[in-house]
Design a protein that fits this description.
single chain; alpha+beta; two-stranded parallel ribbon; 12 helices
């Protein structure tokens, strides 16, 4: 970095600190202008805002700095998710981590990737090219559910915590969607043709005959079998999907049987989070997540 760049950075930092010192501005109109200028610094403003939040005894300054930190972090998550949607949607793990950052903006991404990588490595060590599809699934089930002790969270099925990757990895408990996404990430990393199926009120996986080149090429006949990540990877057939749809009193649709893409999975993740927060009356989070859903849709 040149001396001129360093001087520019130093000047910006001084201007930012000067703005932050005005967080106790009594006029809402003037404060809105100050807030907008601080917000324009983006993530670079967070450290200074955290400093004043920790060291100030003024409740107004504390609340305003905390709100600004959250708004900047949320906007950053929105931008990251929108970039993922357009440029990185093949990386399901990155999409899962980005959604998790909504609730845990300071999470250690490298730690999460390392934890997932350890599970993938444990599966890889047990696989060989001579195994059938069913045998490969048995290996994954053994490593994921027996060795690493992942299980369903029946006791608190609708808890919002179930949807975040860090919680899933730390507690080894999740719901159909979070367990299913983790299962998919393992399979994708090891080139095992397993895909998510966006079944209403549930999320299951389909083992395909091969990796389809495009979604339009998917055929129901190409599904060799289905599996339920919420029930220790139990294998089942199309007949059981038929029965489930009938019990739900739904008209059968191809989308209930065929693979969905990563964007649909992440959209479903956010939609189910919205439902979970609605149940406990967290309307602010519901509103934010609805906006986050737009990042995947746009």
């Amino acid at each position: 970095m040149s001396a001129q760049d360093c001087m520019g950075k130093s000047k910006e930092k001084k201007e930012l600190i000067a703005l932050i010192r005005l967080l106790d501005e009594p006029s809402e109109k003037v404060y809105t202008q100050i807030k907008g200028k601080i917000f324009s610094y983006g993530p670079d403003a967070i450290s200074a805002l955290e400093d004043i939040w920790e060291n100030s005894f003024d409740t107004l300054i504390q609340q305003r700095s905390l709100n600004l930190i959250h708004e900047i972090q949320f906007e950053n998550t929105y931008i990251e998710l929108n970039n993922w949607t357009h440029f990185q949607f093949d990386d399901l793990l990155n999409g899962f981590i980005t959604v998790t950052k909504y609730n845990y903006p300071d999470l250690d991404k490298e730690k999460l990737m390392s934890q997932v990588g350890k599970i993938i490595q444990d599966v890889w060590l047990e696989l060989n090219n001579n195994l059938t599809g069913l045998e490969k699934i048995k290996v994954i089930n053994h490593i994921l559910y027996d060795l690493h002790k992942f299980r369903n969270n029946k006791r608190n099925f609708y808890a919002a915590e179930n949807f975040f990757l860090n919680n899933l990895l730390d507690s080894q408990m999740g719901n159909p969607l979070s367990l299913g996404i983790l299962y998919l990430i393992i399979c994708r990393s090891l080139r095992i043709p397993v895909y998510g199926v966006n079944l209403p009120k549930h999320f299951v996986l389909a083992y395909m005959d091969e990796f389809p080149i495009s979604k339009s090429e998917n055929q129901i006949d190409d599904v060799l079998f289905y599996l339920n990540p919420y029930n220790r990877g139990k294998v089942f057939t199309r007949n059981e999907v038929d029965l489930f749809i009938k019990q739900m009193k739904l008209e059968p649709e191809d989308s209930y049987y065929l693979p969905c893409d990563n964007r649909s999975i992440i959209s479903r993740l956010i939609e189910d989070m919205i439902f979970a927060y609605q149940k406990i009356g967290y309307q602010d989070k519901v509103n934010e997540l609805k906006r986050l859903l737009q990042a995947v849709s746009n």
